Amino acid sequence: MNGSGVSGFARIGPALPLGLAYLAFFVAPLFMLLAVSFFADDRLTVVGLDNWRKFLFDAFHWKVVADTLLLGLKAVFATVLLGLPLALVWRGASPFWQRVLLFVAVMPLLTSVVVRTFAWIVILGREGVVNQLVLGLGLSPEPLRLLQTEFGLVVSLTQIEMPLLLLPLLSVMARFDPNLLDASASLGASPWRTLFRVVVPLVAPGLAAGALLVFASATTAFISQSVIGGGRLVYLPALVWQQAMINANWPFAAVVAIVLLVSVSAVIAVIAYAGRVAGGHAHGTAA
Amino acid sequence: MARRRSPAEISYALVIGGLAALALVILVGPVLVVLATSFTDSRSIRFPPQGFSFRWYELLLDEVRSRPIHRAAGNTLHVAALAAGLATLGGTGAALALAGLRGRWARLADAFFMSPMVLPGLAFGLAALMYFTLLGFRPSLELLVCGHLIVVVPLVLRTVGASLSQRDPALLDASASLGASGFHTFRRVTLPLIAPGIAAGAFLAFMASVDNVPVSLFLSSARTDMLPIRMWGMMESTLDVRVAAVSGTLILVAFILMLVMERFTGLTRRMRG
């Protein structure tokens, strides 16, 4: 296919059907979203910036934006805190255990998000697994409130999103040169120093790739947010859904959706950039 | 070695080992808890489950009393089969074209086609609802297929792209120098090489469509109900124990499919790649 006689069209031709589908069902809808946000009334008759003003000049909305992005960052932090050690253990495991661990890491990805959300209701509920343990061990006189708290939500998102971090992280882990670890140890570095000065910079690209998938998924995880977080914790997805489907206020829903899209994309761009800088730095010094 | 381990080594082993163990418990525990709960004999969802019975599975199979769930499951499978089929065809074509591009344009095209993976699905779901409604369409399974196609196609692009990049260019040159046409080389050399990647991509796309929430949330209606949305309704209102039975069924099906795909396509290796 990379022959010199092949015309440009034959080369990009196979991408045309999907390209057209993207234009019709992806690009055009996003432009429509942008257009709808510039209407002032629900029936889309008067053009105006009213809904943008309504969003931008209300402190409550900014708090929702901040809470949503913070939720995503907390999920990233928690998945890295648990996922990186698991990846380190995976790296040192025998081929058989590597296969088992990989299967365990991927399995949740293929069980529905709704199933995983439901699991956490069973675990965190008043009569759930955690509370049975806490009451049984006499750690607390009454059941703890874990559902409808941000702590419970972050714990749940950690499991729900962990496979997204593990897959790219493991693929980078599998590639790096084990001699570097021995070199670091034989030069007298403690395992901690080796971890932070050698391993983390080397796996930074995989870490960043996973972190941005976790961030994107956690910030838009509407069902987990609403079922585990409950009505008192408001994040952007709930605001989009409520404005579009309950209040039938499309222009305002469009504004919120665009804010979600832009703010999440901005953070993702920063994570991707950080991964490139860290990766480039590590490879620069390693070379 | 006989030397004593330093405090740093001990603390490293304890902390990293402990966190990894916690990660494993958090990954696997919930799946086991749901499976156990689905066999409960009681009307409430609690753990450990009270008694052992198949009553919730029996209720789930009851054609009259679980009709809405059956219809939602049928819709979900219908949409997933079509979306995954179209995504596999379109995605494989696009991956072939992308593999032939180099430099800045290749990176741009790749970022464009992969973007549905990181864009907030909810914003796209709302955009699709507005677009189709303002064009005069009413909610239908066909529209759901169009929406799902966009969000699942990156999975095909990734697995097929990975197997294309691993193929040996010498094989293509050999085929061409033996006088095979481009199409013949594609059919007899490239296609057999990337077939496992295509199969893995098709499977992942199918599962992602079955699982999709953000697009179905906006594009499904009472008539075109989808399983995840139905389950959400069941969890929000009365916490129907049938949710556990549906979840148990989905876990079991996913587990079996995954073992099969692992056997035939080396699925987990491809997902990692």
List the helices and strands and how they pair.
The complex is a heterodimer of chains A (287) and B (273).
Chain A: H1 8-12, H2 16-36, H3 50-56, H4 59-92, H5 95-110, H6 113-124, H7 129-136, H8 150-175, H9 178-186, H10 191-219, H11 222-229, H12 236-246, H13 250-286
Chain B: H1 7-38, H2 55-61, H3 67-100, H4 103-114, H5 121-134, H6 141-165, H7 169-177, H8 182-211, H9 214-219, H10 227-236, H11 242-265, H12 267-272
Describe the 3D structure:
The complex is a heterodimer of chains A (287) and B (273). In chain A, 78% of the residues lie in helices and 0% in strands. By secondary structure, chain A is mainly alpha-helical. The radius of gyration of chain A is 23 Å and the shape is globular. Chain B is mainly α and 273 residues long. Chain B has a single domain (67-272), classed as Orthogonal Bundle (MetI-like fold), CATH 1.10.3720.10. Chain B is built from twelve helices and no strands. In chain B, helix 2 packs across helix 11 and helix 6 crosses helix 8. Chain B is globular, with a radius of gyration of 23 Å. The two termini of chain B are 36 Å apart. At the A-B interface, helix 1, helix 2, helix 4, helix 5 and helix 6 of A face helix 1, helix 3, helix 4, helix 5 and helix 6 of B.
